[in-house]
Amino acid sequence: MQAEDWHLYVMCHGDSEPRYSSLASLRRMKLGAESLHHEELLQLFCAGWTLDNSGHNISTYNKWWSELTGIYWLVNNATEDFIGNAQYRRQWADEGLAPSSPSVVYIPEPERFGCSIARQYREGHAGMDGLEQALMAADRGQMPLSREELELAFNQNIFFGHIMARGAHANYCKIMQTLLDCMWPIWDNCQEKIKQIEGYNCRYISFLAERIMTALVLHRDKVWSGISIETAPINFFP
Fold first, then answer.
1. What mean pLDDT is reported for the chain?
2. Within a 13 Å sphere around the CA of 143, how many CA atoms are in the beta-carbon half?
3. Are 104 and 205 in contact (CB under 8 A)?
4. Domain residue limits at 53
5. CATH, residue 28
6. Pairing, β 50-51 against β 25-30
């Protein structure tokens, strides 16, 4: 498959716009659209934007779920054969788009922290300990991984952040649905406390999802048996 076969949804907050072009077909998505006035929504729709409050959506949760409201929209509403999500400052590098294999799901290359994921998360994100909430969910049987498997992932330093992926429609949706399914028990159990968190860390669910995504990827042979996952380069535009 070639670069133009990809339909990539670029997640944009507030007034942000994609800071790049691409050989792929880009779809601009406005996150948190449920909070906008009718006139703003109409202008965006006429300008060709995809709105995360259309179709089956969770746009009202965007303050806490951030880009996951866009990913939820893709899983439930996108119809293209080969889809993916990107960020307005993070681009799937053109050189990695073609040739691509239709049977592979691509994720960004990982980062390596100078400490464990657990330490980085707890020192950088104030509020409730989301990692402990994930471990407790695993104890309740609400995760596809055990407490021990999560702890193994949290206590090492390879980090698959950004929650970006691209692949054939069915495979992309399976991977992202798994991640979303991991987040719902934590949200249902803690949402009233999460809603009290202000500032940068109010995106509690999104930040935690990056760490859970890392655990899922590291245990991908168990979680997504039969789906081939490979890394591909991305570019960052400050």
1. 96
2. 25
3. no
4. 3-236
5. 3.90.550
6. parallel
